[in-house]
């Protein structure tokens, strides 16, 4: 299927980078369509904003990343002698990088991240393949092939630029998630902000990273400290070169041996999967999404714990990481990964003493709902492996008791609604003066619901305590919903204020937050308006009215960067709406949501971004996105059911 453009909207998004690293790596290693391989370290450092002279301002980590990019230069005299074509436009000269929009990816149906692409420049093709070995500090193995597709000889120069610097300099994106889009340029690679490499025996190095190359080839190390080789290509001739990019001091293996071992490792990891959605032809999507989920489990440099990353280039874990645990619970066979994730939440992040005993706290945006996410993860993990119940039930109860303690504080806060969580930060909007009931409180109610299900299955002595709290919480929130429904009973709309008090000044502040349209669907998913009721359907009508829902997508964030159409926050609102429809018995609407996500939100390479631009394929931030993967897998398992895999 075509990718989105102003001329052909509502196509696929473009895969702007692909993960190469193995699970439990302390590096994020990515392959970019302009032919960059980028190695970034996972550390405990916080990102910061930095100004670069003449280059711009970007959000960066203090620890620099390392990158290698391949360039092509063709003998300019040949252009005059060979046939002219519009495909020559944008052909790479030494002052530029190869364009991403000429990239034709190849994707393995088994999901194994040995990634490759081809760039077709009419008379010359550039091929690249890359993968990583299975080490905590992995090495990236790279093979490039330059192919003469013309019936006469050609002179082509292959360039290899290796630098160390901040990610912004490599990607040209001001933030780590890719919201402004990527704009890599040769100017940044050649800037004084970038550290050059020196030549050693058979590798280039900055003292930490190394790029190994074949010394037998006629590479020239020029004054700008780049590798170059001039290729006299006969008609239809191909020339291939291999490289290894690493900060591991061990001597690299041969390319073919390392590739064989990498494929063997991944086949063994994927053989652990026990279940797959019972949907015809789902295997390529399933295995690619599964591999990306496993690649989110990351080690931190100098630490002995594992984090579940949310995706893109971020080194944080967010509450949405619970969707990884949920999807792996459906799949089965991945207890090693699940335990690595939840053990960090309960053993390292949960406070064991003091006024906030039981709270799960981590340092990026401190949403009120973070501890609730830990309860959900515990519930999903236990469904996958019963041993997690005995191991972490006391931690889960500590989290539950902390939430209950916080709820009780609202009784003593002037103007707060008793029984709801106290005012605080609920989203990426740092406003602390609201009780955002359809986000923070709904998240906690959903966590209680999941937790109760496990306690009942285990006939736990904690069941009555949690059931009583759930009933109280649900009753308070349903009363708030019914109050707004009663006030608007003569209208065809049912608007749910962000703050439960519906204070106009607070609402004005909160409605500057683009997450506005997501939360009413969260309220419906937990049943505050009932299922299939007139009031619930009025809420859906209200937040779908006036073009706020289109082609199966529910949640528009802002205008398309192309100036046409919209950009949509995907999978979160759709997953909530799916849950509502499923509990309402509306299977047809469930399928529409799944079909829309598969049609538009999954790229041709089975990657998902956090947001979808209906007119611009190249606006695809936060890719790959772990929570999006998890939600899609959850809906596929729920709708189509499970089939046991036979390996």
Overview in brief:
The chain has 647 residues and is of the alpha+beta class.
What report would you give on this structure?
- By secondary structure, the chain is α+β, with helices and mostly antiparallel strands.
- The protein is about 35% helix and about 20% strand.
- It contains 17 helices and 24 strands.
- Strands 7-8-9-10-17-14-13-12 form an 8-stranded antiparallel β-sheet, covered by helices on one side. A 7-stranded antiparallel β-sheet has the order 1-2-3-6-11-16-15. A 3-stranded antiparallel β-sheet has the order 21-22-23, with no helix packed on it.
- Helix 6 (about 320-330) packs parallel to helix 8 (about 370-385).
- The longest helix has 25 residues, at about 465-485.
Question: Topology of this protein?
Answer:
Elements: E1 18-19, E2 27-31, E3 36-41, E4 48-52, E5 56-60, E6 65-74, H1 76-81, E7 103-106, E8 115-120, E9 124-132, E10 140-148, E11 154-165, H2 167-171, H3 186-189, E12 198-199, E13 203-205, E14 210-213, E15 220-221, E16 227-233, E17 238-246, H4 255-270, E18 275-277, H5 283-295, E19 297-299, E20 306-308, H6 322-331, H7 335-349, H8 370-384, H9 387-409, H10 437-457, H11 463-487, H12 504-510, H13 519-525, H14 534-544, E21 556-559, E22 566-569, H15 572-584, H16 587-601, E23 611-613, H17 626-640, E24 642-644
Antiparallel strand pairs: 1-2, 2-3, 3-6, 4-5, 6-11, 7-8, 8-9, 9-10, 10-17, 11-16, 12-13, 13-14, 14-17, 15-16, 18-24, 19-20, 21-22, 22-23
Helix pairs in contact: 5-17, 6-8, 6-17, 7-8, 8-9, 8-10, 10-11, 10-13, 13-15, 15-16, 16-17
Descriptive terms for the model:
17 helices, globular, 19% strand, 647 residues, alpha+beta, 34% helix
């Amino acid at each position: 299927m075509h990718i989105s453009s102003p001329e052909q909207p509502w196509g696929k998004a473009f895969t702007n980078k692909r993960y190469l690293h193995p699970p439990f790596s302390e590096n994020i290693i990515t392959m970019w369509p302009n032919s960059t391989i980028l190695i970034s370290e996972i550390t405990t450092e916080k990102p910061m904003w930095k100004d670069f002279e003449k280059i711009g301002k970007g959000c960066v980590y203090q620890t620099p990343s390392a990158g290698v990019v391949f360039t092509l230069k063709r003998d300019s005299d040949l252009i005059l002698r060979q046939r002219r074509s519009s495909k020559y436009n944008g052909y790479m000269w030494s002052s530029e990088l190869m364009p991403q929009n000429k990239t034709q990816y190849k994707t393995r149906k088994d999901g194994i991240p040995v990634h490759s692409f081809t760039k077709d420049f009419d008379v010359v093709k550039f091929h690249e393949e890359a993968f990583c070995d299975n080490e905590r500090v992995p090495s990236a193995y790279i093979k490039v092939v330059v192919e003469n597709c013309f019936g006469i000889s050609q002179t082509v120069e292959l360039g290899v630029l290796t630098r160390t610097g901040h990610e912004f300099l490599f990607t040209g994106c001001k933030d780590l998630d890719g919201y402004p889009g990527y704009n890599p340029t040769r100017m940044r690679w050649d800037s004084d902000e970038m550290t050059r490499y020196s030549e050693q025996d058979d590798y280039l190095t900055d003292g930490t990273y190394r790029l190994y190359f074949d010394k037998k080839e006629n590479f020239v190390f020029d004054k700008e400290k780049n590798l170059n080789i001039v290729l006299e290509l006969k008609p239809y001739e191909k020339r291939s070169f291999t490289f290894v990019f690493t900060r591991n001091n061990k001597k690299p293996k041969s390319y073919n041996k390392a590739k064989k071992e990498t494929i063997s490792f991944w086949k063994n990891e994927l053989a652990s999967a026990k279940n797959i959605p019972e949907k015809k032809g789902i295997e390529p999507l399933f295995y690619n999404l599964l591999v990306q989920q496993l690649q989110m489990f990351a080690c931190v440099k100098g630490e002995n714990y594992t984090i579940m990353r949310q995706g893109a280039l971020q080194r944080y874990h967010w509450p949405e990481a619970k969707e990884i645990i949920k999807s792996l619970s459906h799949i089965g066979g991945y207890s090693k990964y699940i335990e690595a994730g939840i053990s960090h939440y309960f053993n390292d992040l949960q406070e064991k003493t003091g006024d906030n005993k039981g709270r799960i706290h981590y340092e990026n945006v401190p949403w009120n709902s973070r501890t609730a996410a830990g309860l959900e993860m515990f519930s999903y993990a236990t469904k996958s492996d019963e041993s997690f119940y005995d191991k972490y039930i006391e931690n889960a109860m500590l989290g539950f008791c902390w939430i209950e303690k916080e709820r009780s504080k609202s009784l003593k806060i002037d103007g707060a609604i008793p029984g709801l969580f106290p005012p605080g930060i609920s989203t990426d909007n740092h406003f602390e003066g609201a009780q955002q009931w359809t986000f923070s409180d709904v998240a906690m109610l959903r966590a209680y619901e999941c937790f109760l299900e496990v306690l009942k299955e285990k006939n736990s002595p904690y069941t009555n305590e949690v059931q009583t709290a759930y009933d109280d919480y649900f009753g308070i929130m349903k009363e708030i919903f019914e109050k707004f429904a009663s006030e608007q009973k003569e209208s065809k709309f049912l608007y749910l204020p962000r703050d439960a008090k519906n204070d106009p000044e607070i609402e004005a502040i909160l409605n500057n937050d683009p997450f506005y349209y997501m939360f009413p669907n969260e309220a419906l998913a937990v049943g505050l308006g009932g299922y299939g009721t007139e009031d619930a359907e009025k809420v859906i009508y209200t937040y779908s009215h006036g073009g706020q829902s289109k082609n199966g997508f529910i949640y528009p964030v802002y205008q398309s960067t192309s100036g046409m159409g919209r950009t949509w926050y995907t999978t979160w609102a759709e997953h909530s709406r799916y849950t509502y429809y499923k509990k309402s018995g509306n299977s047809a609407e469930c399928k529409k949501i799944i079909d829309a996500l598969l049609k538009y939100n999954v790229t041709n390479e089975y990657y998902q971004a956090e947001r979808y631009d209906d007119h611009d394929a190249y606006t695809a931030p936060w890719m790959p996105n772990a929570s999006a993967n998890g939600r899609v897998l959850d809906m596929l398992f729920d709708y189509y059911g499970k089939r046991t895999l036979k390996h």
